[in-house]
Design a protein that fits this description.
Layout (H helix, E strand, L loop, with lengths): L2 H5 L13 E7 L2 E9 L20 E6 L9 E7 L1
Antiparallel strand pairs: 1-2, 3-4
Length: 81
Amino acid sequence: MDRVANYYRFDGGTWPQRAARAEAVVVNGAVRSIRIIDGGVGYTAVPTVSIPGFDPVPATPQVVFSSAFETNGRIGSISLG
């Protein structure tokens, strides 16, 4: 097998994944933006964003796909609105 097939081999599980981490930037009690601390890896679909302690915030993450195994399927940005 080649390098790509070996990296994404399913061996009874899924391909490598790491959850993204982000923090809300709050100004005067309202979420103004979301800063990504770690974009994670291995996302194949857009995840849901939730911010504990706040009403549902309309946040849209962008999943970035690349040929770099270590960063493929990471969250590149999260926009509000």
